[in-house]
Amino acid sequence: MQKIFSRATLDRIPLYYRALKVLNDSGEKIISSSKLAKILEITPEQIRKDFSDFGQFGIKGVGYNVDKLKRGIEKILGLQYKWKMAIVGVGHLGTALANDKIFPLQGFQVSALFDIDENLIGKKINGVKVYDFAKLDAVIRRKIIDIGIITVPDTQAQIVADALIGAGVKGIWNFAPTKISVPPEIHLVNEDLFIGLTTLSHHLANE
Amino acid sequence: MQKIFSRATLDRIPLYYRALKVLNDSGEKIISSSKLAKILEITPEQIRKDFSDFGQFGIKGVGYNVDKLKRGIEKILGLQYKWKMAIVGVGHLGTALANDKIFPLQGFQVSALFDIDENLIGKKINGVKVYDFAKLDAVIRRKIIDIGIITVPDTQAQIVADALIGAGVKGIWNFAPTKISVPPEIHLVNEDLFIGLTTLSHHLANE
């Protein structure tokens, strides 16, 4: 049981992780907070505070051990485990996520796809079978899926969430642009693309 | 020229906007910060501080004028304008974004699609034509596109960004999982799906 970090900190951790992975792969042993600050455009003070919160301490005037830091961050992100995911809704977005090259490299395995479209059921996408949504409960239980990904129209999102939770998933990643309700023990992350877009329009309109 | 808000504040503004739109559409005239706090699961103090930063002031013991607040937030997000967007890379993700129902309702119009695949060039997706990537500069200039959306593989992302910037776009929304470089006057928003996923795995691994 480790510390649970805020969303703001969690937004930075994958950036640290990616940079450390590149440095480690290219044989770098030591990295200073000021060098990392330049790479990531985050202040060195913020980086040192974050790393200290992660229980990682550098050597003054030298820096941090890249490999040790990377392994510490992997543990915080739960990347030492394999996570099994199911995608419900095999439209363009669901298909794009099923074909993602990065997720499996990081231990996130898409293990089942679900749809109600008879033309899709039984097909395979990136080697993963599309099951009838009616069989969701049995398939999720048999494959012991951890994370359910919702890529259905917003009118169907709550029904899908309820089915996933009933079948035992522990986390939900929701791409439908609607608010869904889940019990407190279920972790829900809403992926809201409108936020990225309005961040752009805010800057374009006001500068 | 208005105030430029931080990303953390900008993550909340679309949530405010959506809630106020629903309230306004259902005929609500006045909303209190405490009622909005319950709907959005944000503290009333944070809401009052944000609204005051937006130059919006409620009446003590009564609340905020829903319509006025909504219009103020629309202006902050630049939603009073129409934004023209081009998507480069008509794979599953590009196609999903081209088919998005929410963007056009909020003033974000996909006006052109680009790809290098001859089987796609000349086709229409959701009424929008796929152009040859070789014609990007001319098409972007003629249509006066504001925002370029990058949905190509990461090895191609910088080339696409350079082409978009050369053609005059002012903002870039990058979905390729790589860091791209842009001049300071260009607004870049990286949409990093790995962040949402590791937010989930962090919670699942540590509770």
Annotation keywords:
homodimer, Arc Repressor Mutant, subunit A, Rossmann fold, 2 domains, two-stranded antiparallel ribbon, 9 helices, 18% strand, globular
Describe the model:
- Two copies of one chain form a homodimer.
- Chain A is of the alpha/beta class and about 210 residues long.
- Chain A folds into two domains: about 5-75, Winged helix-like DNA-binding domain superfamily/Winged helix DNA-binding domain (Arc Repressor Mutant, subunit A), CATH 1.10.10; about 85-195, Rossmann fold (3-Layer(aba) Sandwich), CATH 3.40.50.
- In chain A, about 45% of the residues lie in helices and about 20% in strands.
- The first copy, chain A, contains nine helices and nine strands.
- In chain A, the strands form two sheets. A seven-stranded mixed sheet of chain A has the order 5-6-4-3-7-8-9, with helices on both faces. A two-stranded antiparallel ribbon of chain A has the order 1-2.
- In chain A, helix 1 (about 5-25) packs antiparallel against helix 4 (about 65-75).
- The longest helix of chain A has 19 residues, at about 5-25.
- The first copy, chain A, is globular, with a radius of gyration of 20 Å.
- The mean pLDDT of chain A is about 90.
Number of helices of chain A: 9
Report the major sheet of chain A.
7 strands, mixed
CATH architecture level-2 label of the largest domain in chain A: 3-Layer(aba) Sandwich
Q: Cα distance, first to last residue of chain A?
A: 45 Å
The CATH superfamily of the largest domain in chain A appears as NAD(P)-binding Rossmann-like Domain
Strand residue percentage of chain A: 15-25%
- The main sheet of chain A orders its strands as 5-6-4-3-7-8-9
Number of domains of chain A: 2
Low-pLDDT residue spans of chain A? none
Shape of chain A: globular
Question: Largest inter-chain interface?
Answer: A-B, 58 and 58 residues
